């Protein structure tokens, strides 16, 4: 690490304390509206779905000005214990725009095709404060997608776990919609290194779509079914010179794997046999916002078709 690449908060080699977190928070600017973009879209879906508020995130800034964000989920109207259950999540990282809008578009335009065949639970925007700031972390500079564990310090993660808890043992699949952006390398990864008092290690952002499987429960056929569908919409990320993606060796073309429970990732919360994390690359010159949303929708549809074929 060179000092010129060090994140402009804190002291190199020293983890942040409350003062640095407050300084980081003061840098975050509200850039879009969760109410307008997400809550309004959910209201339009009440005729098709059972809509549930599964919690509320409340944050207060240094001036004690509160922000309140209702956390919303959509449930199939035709819910039946005889059917497989699938969880679709978006916006665990609020800045990953196509995940949020892909989940909403799937709910609006595609879910009806699966009515009476599968129970669907959709949480389209898990981290609304971060959605508004186009930020990965929550208000407390915590990554919700490293916080899905008992006694979670991230209220967004804890609320989703409470929503899912009564249904444990019923899930056949969970697909979590994400993006890998250029800002992961220019902003987030330098920020997390600075926050934790560690050296920043540069990485190459993959140009294209890829998936993250679970090292403890690999499901290669499931991942390949999703990739085959998505490659009709957008390009699949090639491996880098080391045969890796984002610093992780390939399991197969377009697929890497993480210890999802050990890392506190969202796809570890259901106990489902089939899980996948999508990673869209919105900054590619070969992609556009509409294509990114379409890739997410295609991934969900492919996952559901696979589940219905094998369960």
TrEMBL record:
Organism: Rhodoferax potami
PROSITE patterns assigned: PEPTIDASE_M14
Protein's UniProt keywords contain Hydrolase: yes
Family that this chain belongs to: Belongs to the peptidase M14 family.
Gene3D superfamilies on file: Zn peptidases
Lineage: Bacteria, Pseudomonadati, Pseudomonadota, Betaproteobacteria, Burkholderiales
Cofactor entry: Zn(2+)
Classification via Pfam families: AstE_AspA_cat
Name by which UniProt lists this protein: M14 family metallocarboxypeptidase
């Amino acid at each position: 690490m060179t000092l010129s690449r060090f994140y402009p908060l804190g002291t190199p080699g020293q983890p942040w304390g409350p003062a640095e977190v407050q300084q980081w928070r003061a840098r975050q600017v509200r850039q879009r509206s969760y109410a307008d973009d997400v809550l309004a879209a959910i209201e339009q879906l009440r005729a098709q779905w059972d809509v549930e508020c599964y919690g509320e995130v409340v944050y207060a800034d240094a001036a004690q000005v509160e922000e309140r964000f209702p956390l919303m989920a959509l449930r199939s109207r035709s819910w039946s214990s005889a059917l497989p259950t699938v969880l679709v999540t978006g916006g665990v990282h609020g800045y990953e725009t196509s995940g949020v809008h892909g989940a909403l578009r799937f709910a609006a335009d595609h879910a009806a095709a699966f009515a009476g065949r599968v129970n669907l639970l959709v949480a389209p925007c898990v981290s609304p404060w971060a959605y508004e700031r186009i930020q990965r972390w929550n208000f407390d500079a915590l990554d919700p997608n490293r916080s899905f564990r008992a006694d979670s310090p991230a209220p967004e993660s804890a609320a989703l776990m409470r929503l899912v808890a009564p249904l444990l043992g019923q899930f056949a699949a969970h697909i979590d919609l994400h993006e890998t952006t250029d800002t992961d390398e220019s902003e987030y990864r330098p920020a997390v290194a600075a926050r934790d008092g560690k050296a920043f290690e540069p990485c190459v952002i993959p140009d294209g779509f890829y998936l993250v499987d679970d090292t403890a429960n690999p499901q290669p056929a499931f991942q390949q079914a999703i990739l085959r569908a998505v490659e009709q919409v957008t390009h699949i990320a090639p491996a880098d010179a080391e045969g890796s993606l984002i610093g992780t060796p390939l399991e197969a073309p377009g697929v890497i794997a993480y210890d999802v429970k050990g890392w506190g990732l969202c796809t570890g919360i259901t106990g489902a046999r089939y899980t996948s994390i999508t990673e869209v690359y919105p900054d590619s010159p070969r992609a556009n916002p509409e294509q990114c949303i379409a890739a997410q929708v295609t991934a969900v549809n492919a996952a559901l078709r696979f589940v219905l074929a094998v369960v």
